[in-house]
Specification:
295 residues; alpha/beta; Rossmann fold; 2 domains; 9 helices; globular; binds S-adenosylmethionine; S-adenosyl-L-methionine
Length: 295
Amino acid sequence: MTGSVIHGGWGFPPLLTFVVPNRLCTNYTTFNKPNFKPFGQQKSAPLTISCLSDKALTTSCLSDKAVTTAASDHNYGNKQVISVTPRIYDYLLTNVREPTILRELREETATMRGSQMQVSPDQAQLLAMLVQILGAKRCIEVGVYTGYSSLAVALVLPDSGILVACERDNNSLEVAKKYYERAGVSHKVDARHGLAVDTLNSMLENGEGCSYDFAFVDAEKRMYQEYFELLLKLVRPGGVIVIDNVLWHGKVADPLVDDKKTESIRSFNRALMDDMRVSISMIPVGDGMTICHKR
Ligand SMILES: C[S@@+](CC[C@H](N)C(=O)[O-])C[C@H]1O[C@@H](n2cnc3c(N)ncnc32)[C@H](O)[C@@H]1O
């Protein structure tokens, strides 16, 4: 199974192993099979659960039926926080309204190299909803791949809207363009092949500063701070920038992990905490996303 697996190791023997839900997790393993069943018709994946433990948390991992993590620290009011098991995530996916064209794109992408990079249907649904709530007309995506998240956004943009879609890999961008065409949204997507930093800089040189409503970042992790600074210039006050993979398969929370990508996302997350140019909300959807609202 692809996905992040965290083993317990906090003072008691690991009874179980909990598979951290992210876009690499069970459903994507299922999706990667050409004949996967639609959401809600999948058999539950065999479940291994590991009880995580640290100072602030007590975890009750009884079975897949009831897995909750309760903060025992008074500062968190003993709040019960759900740990999403494969079964719960399957259930969540049965409650995602995925347009047929997105499902078809997901199925085609599942046969391709790098399919685990695609955002999950629940993430795409959230991005689309943010765009709708904002009433966004001008959007940017950094990191298109085969176009799942960009298509989800383009589908909800008004006819006069535009999404600048930045991608360095032409092969995957061609797949995305095919689906924009099939979905009847190509007139709303300005697909830019090349390095995203170059595209964003050229947009600024073109006088497009503060003219965008929404941006989504899902590309090179070590460039996050640079993308963010450029997007802050391109997005208007009141606009939204969403950053993907901020939990980085849970590695950011593991002090023993110090590879360059993890360190770089950690330092980006730290910098965002102190960045008063935006209000922020980090949410554990997919591989973790931070929603930044420009002040
Ligand atoms: C995680 S995938 C994007 C997934 C996409 N949002 C989706 O839902 O399918 C990241 C993409 O960013 C692209 N990428 C990485 N670095 C880039 C760069 N410097 N400029 C443009 N695209 C880049 C990669 O080629 C890859 O297709």
